[in-house]
Structures are given as structure tokens and as C-alpha cells.
Request: fold
Amino acid sequence: MENTRKSYDWLSITLHWLSAVVVIGLFAVGLWMVDLNYYSQWYKPVPHWHKSIGLCLAFATVFRLIWKHVKGHPKIEGAPWEQVGAKVAHGVIYLMLFGMFISGYLISTADGRAIEVFNWFSVPALGELFPNQADIAGEIHYYLALALIGLAAVHALAALKHHFINKDNTLRKMLGVK
Reply:
């Protein structure tokens, strides 16, 4: 869908920035929590929060993609190679996010237990679908997280480049200013 709008709507902007903050936060907490030992006061609550927030982000990301499809988005600015690069980067970011969601689910449910989302509801487990599921999914989750943070940094640098060097509206559109 080609959109002639000049900026993103407030919901798209909110979902974008909220997702960015949550991804960075989950990355930092994920790195920290893998070193927690059984006797730490954080051993149980932090993984619970990590899973709950991760699943909420998964639902928000699905909603975000549906919203983007329904509402469309402003035209990507820049040279043709930059427009293609932006489309590819956005697609890869979404693929990485879904890889993170799936691998996180596979880690958490390999033992057959459902995931409690803030004690609001449970996401049922499928159990161990393949040998060493938790370990393999854990490796995938870790490397996807590193790659996602790296690509998000490139994404942010590209936005700053457009703002300060190209002096176009790329960043302003996502900030909601004209």
C-alpha cells in the first residue's frame, strides 16, 4: 500500500519507541540474568518478567505489523539504495524479533511448563519438540539478540545520518514533529 502521509500516526510512533526501549531493556536484563545463581533474590522474578515482557512485545509486534498494513506508512526518503536498504533492514528486524520470540518460547517451554504472563494468563507449552531444545534455542536466542541490537544500532545511526547529513524528514517523521 503506497501512502502519501507525511508522518507516522501517534500509535505507530508510540509502538516504535516503546519497542525500542523494551528491546534494549530485555537485552540488558537478558545478559544480566543468565549469570544469576539459585541463591540470588532475582533468580525467579527476573526471568518471569523477562518472559512476560517478551511475550507482551511479541503481541505488540504482531499488532504493529497489522496496524502498519492497515494504515500504511510515509514514503522512505533517501537515494534508491537507501530506500532498499531501509526496507531490507526493517524486514530483517522483524524477522529477528520473531526469531527471538520463537526461540524464547522454545527455551521456556522445553520442560513442558506454560509461560505465565504477569500472572494474567498462561501461554501453553508444546514441550520438548527436539533433543536439547532449550540449549539450541538458547544459543539462537543469544546470537539473534546480539544481531538485533547491532542492526538496531545501525538503524539508529542511519536515522541520525538522515537528520544531520541529508537534512531530510526521516527522523522527524518518527518523532512526530514537522
In short: The first helix runs from residue 10 to 33. The two ends are 23 Å apart (CA to CA).
